[in-house]
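We give its fold:
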Amino acid sequence: MRFPFSLTRSMTGYLLRKRLAGEKKFPLVLMLEPLHACNLSCDGCGRIREYADTLGRRLSIDQCLAAVEECGAPIVSVCGGEPLIYPDVEELVGKILARRKHVYLCTNGLLLKKKLPGFPPSDRLLINVHVDGMEAAHDRAAGKPGAFAAATDGIRAACSAGFRVCTNTTIYKQTDMHEIAVLLEYLTELGVDGLMISPAYGYESVRRTDPEGAERIFMTREEVHEKFRLARPMLRRFRLTASPIYMDFLCGRRELPCAAWANPTYNVCGWRGPCYLIADAHYRTYRELLAATDWDKLGPSGDPRCRHCLVHCGFEPAAVLRANKGLRDLVKMAVWQMT
C-alpha cells in the first residue's frame, strides 16, 4: 500500500462522516507552522521573505494543539520554516499523535539524524524530507553545500530505525526530469516509502525581491503540463504519492478545482488566508477564514495569482474529493493505493 492502512481507514471514515453530514467544505490536512525560521535559504521559498518580520516568533505547544483541535483535520503537516529547530518539536509531535492524528513531519533533513531519537516510530508518523535533485542541483537550490548529504544521511538513518519516510521534490523550470528519475531511483534504494512530486508556485514575494531569479525558476501552466507530460512515462515505475488524478491534472489531461480550504495553514500570525501559498490576511479562527474567503474566486480561472498554480496542496485534495464522488475515479484511486 502507498499509505499506511491506518491513514487510509482514518481518511475514508472521516470523508464518509462529512459526506453524511452534508458538509461542503472541511479540512483534510492542517498545515501547522510552529515557526518560520529556517536553517536554509532556498531559491523558491516565499516564507522567509513573507514573514521576515516574524522569523523570531514561535507558537507555543498549547497554541499548536488548540489549532489541531479547532481544525479537526485527520492529518497534521508540521512544517515551517524548519520544524526541527523548534525547541519542543518532539513533545509537539508526540501530543498530536496522542490525539490519534496522522503527522507529516516536513523537514529539509539537515537535523534529522540528530533529532531522530526523540521521535518514536509510529505508523501514524511520516517523516517527509524535501529533496529537489541530486547533490549539485539540490545544494544549489538550497543555497548550502552539504545539504543533500545531510538530508540523505537523515533519510538513511530514519529508514534504518523503522520510521516511515517519504520525500517531497519540487519541480522548477530548470529541473532536468531525467535527473529527477535518477533521484527517485536513488531514494527508492535508500528505502523511502513514498515519493511526492509537485511543480513550484511563483510566489509574488520571490518575484518582487528577485525578479530575474523568479523568471528562471517558475513555470507557466503550459510549461508545467509539457514538462510532466514528457516525464510521466519515466515516473510510472516509482512509488509516487502524487495520485493518478493529480498527475493527470499536471499533464493537462483533466481539470481540477482548487480546494485550498481543505489544507488550511496556521502559524504565528493566525490562520493564513486564502491559502498556503497566498497570504492576503490572517484570521483568528478557522471558521473566520472559511467565512471571510470567497473561494469561488480562487483558482486559475479566478484570481490571476492562481493562473499558473498547480501545486499539490491546492489540487491534491480536489483529486481525493473527486475520487470520493465517482465510481471510475474511486476504483482508479483504490487500485493505485493497493499497488
In short: The chain has one domain: 5-338.
